[in-house]
Amino acid sequence: MDGIVIGMIEILSTSQIERARVAGTLVGDILHTVRDRTRPGTDLLEIDRWTREMILAAGAESCYVDYAPSFGRGPFGHWICTSVNDAVLHGMPHPYRLAEGDLLSLDLALTLDGVSADSAVSFIVGGSGTAEDRRLIDTTGRALAAAVAAARPGARIGDLSHEIGSVLTAAGYPVNLEFGGHGIGTTMHQDPHVANAGRPGRGYRLRPGLMLALEPWAMVDTDRLITDPDGWTLRSATGCRTAHCEHTVLITADGAEILTSPSENVSTPV
């Protein structure tokens, strides 16, 4: 039996949840592999090609190639988002060779066996980076962990938003509310929207079988975005550094299960 839809919110069936776990692991494995292969001199279009090859080899489908929402100049036409330095969301791959110390965010969503999964990671290319870059990346990771810890049956979406916003604000980062997390299931973007700040006790009440893509992101000194001429890539308005962290999680009977962690035996193809 398939899952049920309440309004525009999807609750997955047992069989869909099992497929979601497989899709989520695939996303985690691809991101892990791409991160391991990326070094100074890697071109963003190489990253896109690697991702395409791995998605197709697994029999999965890209959520991005034909994606054409109202806020983009679609279709996107690529297999992964590659956002560098002051770019934070929807970074369109283009001819650019990464340099030592670049802050790269990778965002990947795919569909396998009728169920989607979505994840993002930020890291420093070729080294440890600056203390501020490490702090920025660490803060988005802590915000994500706080949201996952708050996700359980009976909790409200506002509880998760509040946890994310509290971590980002305490670290001194402004919070943009234009883009945030979202429901996910048989399609990539669903209700409910999960803003990166909010009031606890408000919003949709979580229940087992709901999947959410939680995605804290931050810019060092602004909450304002600008859009590149490509119509997709979103950058900080001041040119400051940015970071983005995301996992797809499943609400279970007693908490939340992260679905997009890489498998223990994932290896980097030659």
UniProtKB/TrEMBL annotation:
<dbReference type="GO" id="GO:0046872">
    <property type="term" value="F:metal ion binding"/>
</dbReference>
<protein>
    <recommendedName>
        <fullName>Methionine aminopeptidase</fullName>
        <ecNumber>3.4.11.18</ecNumber>
    </recommendedName>
</protein>
<comment type="function">
    <text>Removes the N-terminal methionine from nascent proteins. The N-terminal methionine is often cleaved when the second residue in the primary sequence is small and uncharged (Met-Ala-, Cys, Gly, Pro, Ser, Thr, or Val). Requires deformylation of the N(alpha)-formylated initiator methionine before it can be hydrolyzed.</text>
</comment>
<dbReference type="Pfam" id="PF00557">
    <property type="entry name" value="Peptidase_M24"/>
</dbReference>
<keyword id="KW-0479">Metal-binding</keyword>
<keyword id="KW-0645">Protease</keyword>
<feature type="domain" description="Peptidase M24">
    <location>
        <begin position="19"/>
        <end position="253"/>
    </location>
</feature>
<comment type="similarity">
    <text>Belongs to the peptidase M24A family. Methionine aminopeptidase type 1 subfamily.</text>
</comment>
<feature type="binding site">
    <location>
        <position position="189"/>
    </location>
    <ligand>
        <name>substrate</name>
    </ligand>
</feature>
<feature type="binding site">
    <location>
        <position position="118"/>
    </location>
    <ligand>
        <name>a divalent metal cation 1</name>
    </ligand>
</feature>
<feature type="binding site">
    <location>
        <position position="246"/>
    </location>
    <ligand>
        <name>a divalent metal cation 1</name>
    </ligand>
</feature>
<feature type="binding site">
    <location>
        <position position="118"/>
    </location>
    <ligand>
        <name>a divalent metal cation 2</name>
    </ligand>
</feature>
<dbReference type="GO" id="GO:0006508">
    <property type="term" value="P:proteolysis"/>
</dbReference>
<feature type="binding site">
    <location>
        <position position="246"/>
    </location>
    <ligand>
        <name>a divalent metal cation 2</name>
    </ligand>
</feature>
<dbReference type="InterPro" id="IPR000994">
    <property type="entry name" value="Pept_M24"/>
</dbReference>
<feature type="binding site">
    <location>
        <position position="182"/>
    </location>
    <ligand>
        <name>a divalent metal cation 2</name>
    </ligand>
</feature>
<dbReference type="GO" id="GO:0004239">
    <property type="term" value="F:initiator methionyl aminopeptidase activity"/>
</dbReference>
<dbReference type="GO" id="GO:0070006">
    <property type="term" value="F:metalloaminopeptidase activity"/>
</dbReference>
<dbReference type="InterPro" id="IPR002467">
    <property type="entry name" value="Pept_M24A_MAP1"/>
</dbReference>
<keyword id="KW-0031">Aminopeptidase</keyword>
<comment type="subunit">
    <text>Monomer.</text>
</comment>
<feature type="binding site">
    <location>
        <position position="215"/>
    </location>
    <ligand>
        <name>a divalent metal cation 2</name>
    </ligand>
</feature>
<dbReference type="GO" id="GO:0005829">
    <property type="term" value="C:cytosol"/>
</dbReference>
<feature type="binding site">
    <location>
        <position position="90"/>
    </location>
    <ligand>
        <name>substrate</name>
    </ligand>
</feature>
<dbReference type="InterPro" id="IPR036005">
    <property type="entry name" value="Creatinase/aminopeptidase-like"/>
</dbReference>
<feature type="binding site">
    <location>
        <position position="107"/>
    </location>
    <ligand>
        <name>a divalent metal cation 1</name>
    </ligand>
</feature>
<dbReference type="InterPro" id="IPR001714">
    <property type="entry name" value="Pept_M24_MAP"/>
</dbReference>
<keyword id="KW-0378">Hydrolase</keyword>
